Here is the input.
Amino acid sequence: DAMVIQNPRYQVTQFGKPVTLSCSQTLNHNVMYWYQQKSSQAPKLLFHYYDKDFNNEADTPDNFQSRRPNTSFCFLDIRSPGLGDAAMYLCATSRPGQGVKTQYFGPGTRLLVL
Amino acid sequence: DAKTTQPPSMDCAEGRAANLPCNHSTISGNEYVYWYRQIHSQGPQYIIHGLKNNETNEMASLIITEDRKSSTLILPHATLRDTAVYYCIVRVPWNTDKLIFGTGTRLQVFP
Here is the structure.
């Protein structure tokens, strides 16, 4: 089945130690998104890629970076994680040009910062 | 994208219809109403969307008022697996930009 895959499902890192979360998709969608969801809050967009064009949200901290080496893969890099970065990180995809689009989400990676 | 207002929580007995309301009084003419849900510890899942006509699919029905200022998501026969947070979102469909999630409604289906 076509899907959005996130690995790992759980990630533990230390305060200040760089960490990378990965997302892959078999849907061949042009657009990939990264959302952050803190406990008991709604998901909040960090940035998205339209093909190779990167679109950062104005309030996304510089500590968060992203890479998209090809259509299928997208990475979220947190350069120096703080305790406040502990959250669920959700990857999503969509395909423009279909008129009415929906976003397809992966299962998320829960990040714990010690 | 227009803002939405939803009740923070609702209960529903298993097998009964769950009716989840959403107010979107500032919706503009080209904005659609989308519903997503998020089961605990999973990513959000698309349910249904509509512009002004009522819509039905295998998961749910969407009823949009004639003035489009509010809508209701109906799960006709709720099961325990429908326990989740339900988000109502209004947006322009050709916008590849973000989904702006509100606070959502936490639906608890009980036996």
